[in-house]
Design brief:
The protein has 13 helices and 14 strands. The chain is α+β, with helices and mostly antiparallel strands. The protein has 2 domains: 240 residues, BirA Bifunctional Protein, domain 2 (2-Layer Sandwich), CATH 3.30.930.10; 84 residues, CO dehydrogenase flavoprotein, C-terminal domain (Enolase-like, domain 1, 2-Layer Sandwich). It has an 8-stranded mixed beta sheet with strand order 7-8-9-10-6-2-1-11, sandwiched between helices. The termini are far apart.
């Protein structure tokens, strides 16, 4: 333990793809006996867990309309919303030192230094007044592991609710009221808690726990030219990692229009449409087979959906049907 060197690293970027790539890069390049405490922020981002389905976890349509980025991390756990009122932390260390309870104690002591009474809840959450202000997730390697989490300081909780609520999809189990009732900003309990004051407290308790700080450094996006980092950045920005890695899933879209009601039941494999069942009470339903044929096999991406819809030979009387179905499908699709 006495041989460990504590290095504090800040990211100057608020780009989630850079920050997640940097996190993995720090893990892969960490030296023996080095403890890394990494602090970072993302601007307007939904981050989903490694095995989660973005279509089921967030409102993709609203996110894309409002330039909210969709990112996937390499650890497990649930979807979270990040903005500049949220501070992220990561502990990276050898498995011989790694201890989640100890790491969470570092966070709790920093928060409670502001005369609060925060506490653990289960394995993943930190609570204050029975409301969550921090969620945590973990990635275990053979020799090195990391533990990262969020800290709600003065985040926009309405946006958190909005973007973590799926759109017009038959999976809606998260209501805005129930989401906002379960979370809390630290600054609501003590206005002296800001991103900067919390950073200072975290570094202090981290040093108390792990010994004197060896180095403090800030990493900038333009200064990382290592091919390993560039490959990681490419991975985190790629559509395939963010969307294509989604597990197989089913999705139902439905609506009633002037011409009738329609239900679209999709099955997906690697974010491509593998099968479709279409039910409608429309009087003129000859379009159903043409629609199935055009959509099966395409990536669930709005550009691909548009291309597929335009590839169908639509009768003049079906123009309204085409426009309504396209709009309905694109509610569930992605623009990226």
């Amino acid at each position: 333990m006495n041989n460990s060197k504590l290095n504090i690293i800040y990211s100057s970027s608020v780009d989630p793809y850079f920050n997640l790539a940097l996190e993995e890069y720090l893990m892969l390049t960490k030296k023996k006996n080095e403890i890394i405490f990494y602090l970072w922020q993302n601007k307007n981002t939904v981050v989903i867990g490694h095995n989660q389905n973005p279509w089921k976890e967030c409102n993709l349509t609203l996110a894309e309309q409002n330039h909210v980025k969709i990112a996937r991390r390499s650890s497990g756990g649930g979807a979270v919303y990040h903005d500049l009122g949220n501070l992220n932390f990561t502990f990276i260390m050898d498995n011989s030192i790694y201890n989640e309870n100890r790491q969470l104690e570092v966070i709790l002591r920093a928060v409670n230094s502001f005369h609060l009474h925060a506490y653990f809840s289960g394995r993943n959450d930190l609570l204050l007044d029975n409301k969550k202000f921090s969620g945590n997730a973990y990635l275990y390697g053979e020799e090195i592991s990391y533990h990262h989490g969020t800290l709600l300081v003065n985040a926009d909780l309405q946006n958190l609710s909005t973007y973590l609520t799926p759109s017009k999809i038959k999976i809606i189990s998260k209501g805005i009221t129930s989401v906002t009732s379960r979370v809390k900003n630290l600054s609501d309990s003590n206005p002296s808690i800001t991103i900067d004051t919390l950073k200072t407290a975290l570094i202090s308790t981290c040093e108390d726990e792990y010994g004197p700080i060896n180095t403090i450094s800030t990493l900038h996006q333009n200064n990382l030219q290592d091919p390993m980092f560039i490959a990681l950045f490419d991975k985190y920005t790629s559509w395939d990692f963010r969307f294509g890695k989604s597990p197989s899933f089913d999705l139902t879209l439905e609506d009633r229009f002037v011409w009738g009601e329609i239900q679209l039941h999709f099955s997906f494999q690697d974010a491509r449409i593998s099968n479709i069942a279409i039910y409608t009470d429309a009087l003129h339903s000859n379009f159903v087979d043409r629609l199935k044929l055009a959509l099966i096999g395409i990536t669930f991406n709005n550009k691909e959906i548009e291309k597929a819809m335009n590839s169908i030979t639509w009768k003049k009387s079906e123009t309204t049907i085409k426009d309504d179905i396209r709009s309905l499908i694109q509610l569930g699709g992605s623009n990226v």
